[in-house]
Amino acid sequence: MNDASYSLAAMARYFLKLGTIGFGGPVALVGYMYRDLVESRRWIGEDDYKEGLTLAQLMPGPLAAQLAMYLGYVHYGILGATVVGAAFVLPSFLMVVAIGWAYQRFGGLPWMQATFYGVGAAVIGIIAISACKLTTKNIGRDRLLWSIFLATAAFTVWTQSESVWLFLGGGVMVWLVRTPPKRGFGRSIAPALAAFDPSTAPVSAMASGLDWNVLAQIGAFFAKAGAFVFGSGLAIVPFLYAGVVHEHRWLTERQFVDAVAVAMLTPGPVVITVGFIGHLIAGVPGACVAALGTFLPCYLFTVVPAPYFKKYGKRPALVAFVDGVTAAAIGAIAGAVIVLAERSIVDVITALIALVSVGVIWRLKKIPEPLVVAVAAIIGLIAFSASHR
Domain ranges in the chain? Predict the structure, then answer.
């Protein structure tokens, strides 16, 4: 397995950096991984990346974190997945815990709305470019893949959610067209798809191992979120809202909106907002339990099926299936860009920020995205404050 041209320490440093400065949510993060690890550094092969993206889309849990874990697994197995996953998640987790402490100490963060006013628009520009690159590189001129891409993008925009059945359907469609079954589909792909049963996720185990009732409830709820919610931040936010605000009444509507803002303002996976929510409920222990409950199932959903993807990944039937799922996944990502744009681009100023961000990143490729985000945050603070006096 270990024929890598890089060390595990180098990969960990990359994901530590990405978790520290990687803005834009899952759509942008998967684009960064492709640009940096496949195109620029050539640490990860095209096929390995596509397999990882497919696995991350098929399994429940946060998309970017699962893809990061799989890329760590490619050459360094379970150890690589563990080290990379921790390096990717830890920086943003520490950030949201610190923000949670400040939020409680100083009675809310009214400046968040003003900052997000500009940051959200800039992030839309960043993720739009990432989605464009993924589309042109992986779909090309293939009409079948384009039809799957467009159908999934339209579904995501219409429903503002993602469906694993569309990913599976796209994979099956390409498999049937390109490599009609002669030996049976189940022998090549079924082990990878059925390797892990969601009902075995460690929900009850986590709850029963804790002494405090509230922490047990937090562990059970967030493990359920990590084990049974498909898609990226778009999918998990409504689930968290229903449970945190209405079912358990841990947070108010205002606090939950602020939690989502924290997720968008901080780098790393959007789902790391669970750390902020957990901190508001039960301090640092609550943050740790919420994060562990969310990310442990997705870790298992990655490392358990991964050997099957590596073993059967070169078979024509699975290659066709992966191409179909990849097209569907990129379609969902493109649709998510539109959904997020509807929420972040609310007037002429935010539209201009988004357009300028696209132009700057497209033309001046050496300017780092965090700098663009920082400038947009300053512009947003000034513009928002001037318009809300």
Answer: 8-196+301-387
